[in-house]
Design brief:
Helix content: under 10%
Oligomer: single chain
Mean pLDDT: 88
Order of helices and strands: EEEEEEEEEEEEEEEEEEEE
Low-confidence stretches: 1-19
Strand order of the largest sheet: 3-11-10-5-6-7
Pfam family, one: I-set
CATH superfamily of the largest domain: Immunoglobulins
Number of domains: 2
Keywords: Signal
Largest sheet: 6 strands, mixed
Organism: Pterocles burchelli
CATH architecture of the largest domain: Sandwich
CATH topology of the largest domain: Immunoglobulin-like
CATH class of the largest domain: Mainly Beta
Structural class: mainly beta
Strand content: over 45%
Protein name: IGSF5 protein
């Protein structure tokens, strides 16, 4: 006889005989850039009949043990893998969109027989500093603005000078609402140059393998010369 637990189904066909199947491993959380693919795996034990994938509560793909995946035209497809007594369904979401963010659920269509994860779709926007070069005389304090437009979420902005991070007390970053649910950020760095230097503004979100960057060369001019 089998134990009653979450994700476990027990069916008894003959007295003294039992058959159970369960979700062995459910999907894991994923963070991806908009336009890329998102992948989720759901592994079930032998005996399953119907597996359904849901996105934010809406069924997007069905897999039937006797015939495979039933796919409709769209951005949701699947791959299937069998290893021993375990079956894995991989849900693939193509060309991910910001609206895809939310709950991704694998269900084998019985009470208490589902597992879920969360998808975060992020948007890599633009980043720029208005001028590529700036000439500054000695003892003059300047403000340099770095603007990030059309991101989701708003990026974390940092500054570097000649490959060294600048203390956060020297710049102020403000976020604002953009269009279509996106976010903007404006970071203003205040400094008094003592020499020519290259300043780099970096914008980062979790889905980016490397921060996006924009640079400006500050040319120091000694007025005493």
């Amino acid at each position: 006889w089998c134990c009653i637990c979450i994700y476990r189904l027990c069916f008894f066909f003959l007295p003294g005989l039992g058959f159970c199947y369960s979700i062995i491993n459910g999907p894991a959380n994923a963070t991806v850039l908009a336009g890329s693919e998102a992948h989720f795996n759901c592994t079930v034990s032998v005996g399953w009949v119907i597996l359904i994938w849901l996105s934010n509560g809406n069924p997007v793909l069905t897999v039937i043990s006797s015939q495979g995946a039933i796919e409709t035209p769209g951005r949701f497809t699947s791959q299937n893998y069998t290893s021993g007594n375990a079956f894995t369904s991989e849900l693939i979401i193509h060309n991910t969109q910001l609206s895809d963010s939310g709950k991704i659920e694998c269900s084998i269509q019985q009470p208490g027989s589902s597992s879920f994860a969360f998808l975060s779709v992020q948007v890599n926007g633009s980043l720029f500093i208005k001028n590529s070069t700036l000439t500054v005389k000695d003892n003059k304090t300047v403000e340099i603005a770095c603007e990030a437009l059309g991101w989701a979420p708003a990026p974390d902005i940092t500054w570097m000078t000649n490959d060294t991070f600048i203390d956060k007390s020297r710049y102020v970053t403000q976020e604002s609402q953009g269009s279509n649910g996106l976010r903007n950020a404006l970071s203003i760095l205040t400094l008094t140059p003592m020499d020519t230097e290259i300043l780099t503004c970096l914008a980062d979100i979790d889905a980016l393998p490397n921060p996006q960057n924009a640079t400006v060369t500050v040319i120091f001019v000694n007025s005493a010369i």
